[in-house]
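To illustrate the input format used throughout this study, we show a single complete record. The first block contains the structure-token representation of the backbone; no residue identities are included at this stage. The design step must infer an amino acid for every position from geometry alone.
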């Protein structure tokens, strides 16, 4: 914004005050929603409106102004819905015309007047009364150009939402997705709960935590990386079906599908296993598509994706072997797996352990190919310290991940409920941490004590709400569905 334009807006602000007009009044007065006005009078033609002389009082933001001699128009927008407002010299009160001379695009106003239709059929309110509600001291981006800089869109989301209809649509799709998740789980008898965000010991996932301190107890705390261990304590406590939709925090990289804070759905159901969670998430994703979009076939970044089940299922072993020619269970230690990768001309990356290398191979060579909804099952124990071992192969666990559009959407286990096995897994994770794995799971004695009271057979599921919203909203990155994504600090001006 130029200094001259900013100064001109300031001058109009002072002119308003000089006339005794409060540019930021505390009261609005009674108003109707513009959406309701439009819906109610959608079928009224010009003659009917003129005969009824129906009057309305509405409020919104001025998004454009135009003048045709004695006739002036401006568009008033509330919650994304527009109503045209008119003022005509000789008909409109002089006080309204004088106030209009001091208003700018971006100002919020209350308008009162009768409804009529223009010759082009546009529903319009004649401004018999006009009250300034909030003066805008900075101009909005031009609607037809918007914010071209993607980074600027995210840094100034308030402007993005004002001028970018697609940004508003994504926000509404995400909100509708969360509402539909709640309705789906509530209908299945799940209880929504809340668990601590500040935790004395982080756990439930493989990630580095954010560290903070509670000064009153001189206690180091962590922002949770997962809700899992607290939710399973609730199942131990007899709450057999629980879920939480909340923010998790992981001190890791930022990418098109990663943000340091994000929204997760986690739900746990007693007396079922990972197969039960497969049925649940498959049904839920289809339900969300039908509820939010009205159909199950979606277009995501130019590719058609069918979200109605059933979804195909493949083992992690066979998927990696098909993509790379490497049998991960035949290369059951880090050295042999790294050697097999190099023999195939593949970069083993910086993975510190066998399990991390398996994850690397899958992420590089399999995950991007999984465009249609696909379940990957039977993960190695090392990658899943909280999951129950497979009865068919003790090297594997009863776990699946759901992939859509080349990214993981959900992760589920038959939950490990043997406290002795869980303790042994935590010891293995502690050893991995000492060997350099900074995402290894810590030892959690309190959780082990809870398990010793008896966790019934339980299926657990985690779903990335943001990633699911990406698919439903056709958003290319997680930053599009996060209203305020984390961004690199701006350089000093």
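Output of the design step:
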């Amino acid at each position: 914004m130029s200094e001259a334009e900013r100064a001109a807006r300031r001058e109009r602000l002072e002119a308003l005050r000089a006339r005794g007009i409060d540019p930021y009044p505390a009261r609005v007065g009674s108003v109707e929603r513009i959406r309701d006005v439009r819906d109610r009078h959608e079928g009224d033609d010009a003659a009917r409106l003129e005969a009824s002389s129906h009057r309305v009082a509405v409020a919104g933001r001025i998004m454009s102004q135009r003048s045709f001699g004695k006739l002036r128009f401006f568009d008033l927008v509330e919650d994304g819905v527009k109503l045209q407002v008119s003022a005509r010299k000789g008909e409109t009160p002089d006080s309204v015309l004088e106030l209009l001379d001091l208003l700018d695009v971006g100002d919020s106003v209350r308008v009162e007047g009768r409804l009529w239709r223009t010759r082009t059929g546009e529903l319009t309110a004649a401004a018999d009364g006009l009250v300034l509600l909030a003066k805008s001291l900075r101009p909005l981006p031009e609607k037809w150009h918007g914010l071209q800089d993607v980074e600027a869109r995210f840094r100034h989301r308030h402007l993005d939402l004002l001028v970018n209809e697609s940004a508003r649509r994504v926000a509404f799709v995400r909100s509708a997705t969360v509402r539909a998740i709640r309705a789906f789980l509530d209908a299945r008898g799940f209880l929504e709960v809340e668990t601590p965000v500040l935790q004395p010991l982080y756990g439930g996932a493989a990630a580095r935590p954010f560290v903070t301190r509670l000064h009153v107890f001189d206690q180091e705390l962590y922002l949770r990386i997962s809700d899992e261990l607290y939710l399973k304590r609730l199942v131990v406590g007899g709450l057999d079906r629980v879920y939480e939709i909340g923010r998790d925090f992981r001190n890791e990289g930022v990418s098109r599908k990663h943000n340091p804070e994000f929204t997760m759905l986690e739900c746990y159901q007693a007396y079922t296993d990972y197969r039960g969670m497969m049925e649940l998430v498959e049904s839920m994703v289809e339900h969300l598509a039908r509820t939010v979009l009205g159909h199950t076939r979606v277009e995501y970044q130019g590719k058609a994706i069918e979200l109605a089940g059933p979804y195909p299922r493949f083992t992690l072993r066979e998927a990696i072997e098909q993509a790379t020619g490497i049998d991960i269970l035949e290369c059951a230690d880090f050295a042999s797996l790294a050697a097999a990768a190099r023999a195939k001309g593949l970069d083993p990356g910086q993975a510190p352990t066998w399990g991390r290398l398996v994850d690397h191979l899958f992420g590089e060579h399999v995950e991007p190919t999984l465009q249609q909804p696909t379940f990957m099952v039977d993960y190695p124990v090392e990658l899943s310290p909280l999951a129950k071992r497979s009865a068919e192969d003790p090297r594997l666990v009863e776990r699946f991940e759901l992939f859509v559009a080349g990214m993981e959407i959900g992760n589920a286990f038959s939950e490990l409920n043997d406290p002795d096995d869980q303790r042994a897994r935590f010891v293995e994770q502690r050893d991995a941490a000492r060997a350099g794995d900074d995402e290894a799971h810590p030892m959690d004695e309190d959780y082990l004590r809870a398990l010793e009271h008896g966790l019934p057979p339980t299926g657990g599921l985690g779903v990335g709400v943001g990633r699911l919203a990406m698919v439903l909203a056709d958003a290319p990155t997680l930053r599009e569905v996060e209203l305020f994504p984390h961004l690199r600090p701006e350089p000093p001006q």
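Structural context for interpreting the output: The first strand starts at residue 55 and ends at 68. The chain has two domains: 3-134, 162-312+372-481.
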